[in-house]
Amino acid sequence: MAPELIRLIAFGAVPAAILAKSRGTLETANISVELTQTPSSTEQMKGLIEGRYDIVSTAFDNILAWNGYEGEVITAVARAQQGVRLPVYARPEINSWSELRGKPCAVDAVDTAFALVLRAMLRENGLDMEDGDYELIPEGATGHRLESIIRGDTYAGVINPPWDKVAEEKGLILLGDHREVIPDYPGGVFATKTQWLNGNRELAARFFSAIQQAIDWARTDSAAAQRVLVIEGDYGEEDASRALKSLPHAMSLNPDELQVPLDLRLSFGLGPKMGTDVSGFCDLTVV
């Protein structure tokens, strides 16, 4: 019987999926994965809503922001990362947060996810977008944000790993990271449309079980797992090590963690269309 296809879209590689393919847990589950790397959260979420993708790996805030778009309901179903690091880098001529006053900053989309983290950090350092202190420019995924800053079109942005190493090589200045302001901000999640999940619940459960088995193996033999990511995932040694550390210990969602980005969104007056109860944005029965 031919493997069942899952169309997955993510920001960059998905290390757990690489490990699951290498270990054969996806094959045992009779699943094949088609991975698309997204240029932006807008493309990612529109593609999910339009049915071009089945599952996304994304920040939970994108689920909050896009729920109800064109009447579609999106739900987070599993944890994709144990945590996240969101450093803010600026052009070499910027030596302090205050020097970003009047400058454009690069974000994925202006009102979701890491853009709100950046706004919180700027607010903590005396700059408020509502007061006209700076402008957010939607540049897309991390690599595009970095290119914009290097070109001088924008002056700062969240440059998360592994792009942070490139930022430093290009002489950009580290201003700080999210842990100074929002230390409990969660890592990414896997999410899908409720309509797709209702028709494919068994397939989804099989997929995440295969992923979890690969993660469990990586925990017991990190050296071998790191070699898999280097050889089959084209990671450098350091990036592979960091990717392994970011794998979730358990894929089950924790609503208390997900409350953090919801509260951040509400603090900027950007309440989700589908209400403010975090339980309405996640399904805890899949994993």
What's a concise summary of this model?
The chain folds into two domains: 175 residues, D-Maltodextrin-Binding Protein, domain 2, CATH 3.40.190; 94 residues, Periplasmic binding protein-like II (D-Maltodextrin-Binding Protein, domain 2, 3-Layer(aba) Sandwich), CATH 3.40.190.10. Helices cover 40% and strands 17% of the residues.
Number of helices: 12
CA-CA gap between termini: 25 Å
Strand content: 15-25%
CATH superfamily of the largest domain: Periplasmic binding protein-like II
Q: Please name the CATH topology of the largest domain.
A: D-Maltodextrin-Binding Protein, domain 2
The total number of structural domains is 2
> Main sheet, how many strands, which sense, barrel?
5 strands, mixed
Low-confidence stretches: none
Report the CATH C-level class of the largest domain.
Answer: Alpha Beta
Helix content: 40-55%
Indicate the structural class: alpha/beta
Query: Which strands sit side by side, in order, in the main sheet?
Result: 2-1-3-10-4
Count of individual beta strands: 10
Shape: globular
CATH architectural name of the largest domain:
3-Layer(aba) Sandwich
Mean pLDDT, as a whole number?
A: 96
